[in-house]
Amino acid sequence: MAGEYVFTISNLSKTYGAKTVLENINLSFYHGAKIGIVGENGSGKSTLLKIMAGEDTEFDGKADPLKGTRVGFISQEPLLDMNKTVRENVAFALQVAGESHKRIKDIVPRVLHIVGLGHKMERYPNQLSGGEQQRVVIARSLVHRPKILVADEPTGNLDTLNTKEIIEILKKINQFGTTVVLVTHNREVVNHLKKRVIAIDEGKILSDEKHGKYRL
Q1: Which tens digits make up the pLDDT trace of 107-140?
Q2: For the chain, which terminus, N or C, has the lower number of CB atoms within 10 Å?
């Protein structure tokens, strides 16, 4: 439902040894929102996303999704199994969760259609472009119908054309009602979104603008 929080972060701090990576972060994300997180390398933004995705569980404070909220995670590197087809790569995420063969057969074509790869289900990752490989990763992240999708530099290794295609897919997913949180260094991507922009510097919130731009 619009207007409700799907994720709240309270007094969040993270250290690696003597180094403070995140310090007293307080943020809330609304259902259906579209958010860009920007910052220099080492600012802590990627660590923040990993905590939100449950990839990092060692921190102080709270990082709480709404009860029952699933969080999908997209990394910069596709990390696909090169010995599996596109269909098999996406299906694997459901298999490990114990889904039935019937449900897998139903869901996989649907998510691949969303990312424009319905016609390439039986190809292998090495037969795809870098942008298409990243689309497989997005499809895989959608199979559990996440309410929030966090993407860490999903276009970092892509050219301008593929970057635009990935951003359009993320916008389409957002239109379905999924909250999208995007970390990126790409100024054009952030400014094109014309939505909330959170800037992080040295582990602290530098700014949080409802309709922000890349100002770093």
Answers
A1: 999 999 999 999 999 999 999 999 999 999 999 9
A2: N
Extract the tokens encoding 10. Answer: 């309270």
Identify whether residues 133 and 157 lie together within a single domain. Answer: no
Q: How many angstroms separate the CA atoms of 133 and 12, rounded? A: 33
Summarised one tens digit per residue, pLDDT across range 180-199 is: 999 988 777 887 777 899 99
Last residue of a domain, one of 100, 117, 145: 145
Could you tell me if 136 and 120 are in contact, meaning their C-beta atoms sit under 8 angstroms apart? no
Nearest to 149 by CA among 20, 32, 17: 32
Could you give the dihedral angle defined by the CA atoms of residues 62, 144, 181 and 15, in that order, rounded to the nearest 10 degrees? 40
Q: What is the DSSP letter of 32?
A: T
Cβ burial of 175 (10 Å; 0-12, 13-18, 19+) is exposed
